[in-house]
Amino acid sequence: MALIVVPYHQDERLPDALLPLPAGRPAVVVDPELPPGDLWTRLAALDEAVAQAVAAAGEPVTMVSGDCLLGVAALAGAQRTGLDPALVWFDAHGDVHTLASTTSGYPGGLSLRLALGGDPSLVGKPLGLRPVAEERVVLVGARDLDPPEVSFLAASRVRRTTVTGLSAAEVPDGPLVVHVDVDVVDPAELPGLLFPAAGGPPASEVVAAVRRLRATGRVAVLDIACPWQRTADSSARAALLEALLR
User: Fold this and answer.
1) Neighbours of 101 (CB within 10 A)
2) Does 59 score more than 90 pLDDT?
3) What separation in angstroms does the CA of 126 have from each of 20, 27, 46, 93?
4) How far apart are CA 207 and CA 210, in angstroms?
5) What angle do CA 183, 5, 194 make, to 5 degrees?
6) Angle at the Cα of 24 (from 182 to 207), degrees rounded to 5?
7) Tell me: the pLDDT tens digits for 197-225?
8) Where are the beta strands (DSSP E) in 23-162?
9) pLDDT at 20
């Protein structure tokens, strides 16, 4: 798989050391000059650069970034190659808010809903994104949901499962975009997460689930989002990324 690195959390350029990739692994770094303007204007520009890089890779892609929002750009890039991928979304959170439902205002909480067609003017229309049908989406490991997210998911056709319960035979047919927010891992094992949610699986189970999907040969994009704090000890992070990239 080609490796793309996007060292951003939202529109903030991150220090390179915050994404501790295995040494010697060649990567394309997407680091465009973002225009002035509000957050969503800048994110649309970053997303366009990411979608172009994914589409240009010409082969299955692994992408590492600091932000779940970039998973939408990865999806758009896969679509630009002519694919109609389903979406498998590993996350401790639902990420299915809209601007109208969010109480925190945190943009990352909209990520999966954007892929489903929510608030299309923010990034969907600028990217030319084709919303993914709900029945072609699997939400894995979500355990920290706000009331509007609970209501939305209960009424939707998005399938939910645990990390250990995820079977490659049960994901939608065809190519896959697999998004892994590392906060799906239990925070006791992965300290320093921006939004830790207790009660998650160990990293080994997340890695095993991702490998089950990759073994199908249907993963067009593996998107790994690392929303974590700037801490001195990155050993657990480095080990997780190395295992996911192997």
Assistant:
1) 17
2) no
3) 31, 26, 11, 26
4) 5
5) 25
6) 25
7) 999 999 999 999 999 999 999 999 999 99
8) 28-29, 61-65, 86-90, 137-140, 159-161
9) 93
Tokens of 154: 């209960």
CB–CB of 136/87 below 8 Å?
yes
pLDDT at residue 35, rounded to an integer: 96
Whole-number Å distance between alpha carbons of 188 and 69: 25
Task: State the amino acid at position 24 in one-letter form.
Answer: G
DSSP state of 21: P
What separation, in Å, do the N-terminal and C-terminal C-alpha atoms of the chain show? 10
Residue type present at position 89: W
**Across the chain, what does the average pLDDT equal?**
96
What tokens appear for 72 in the block?
């939408």
| Rounded CA separation 66/74 (Å) | 13
Tokens coding 79:
């679509």
Tokens coding 37:
């303007």
Q: Given this model, what pLDDT does residue 215 score?
A: 96
Confidence band, pLDDT 50/70/90 cuts, at residue 57: very high
Which residues on adjacent β-strands are paired with residue 139? Answer: 89, 160
Check pLDDT > 80 for residue 232.
no
CA distance 232 to 100: 37
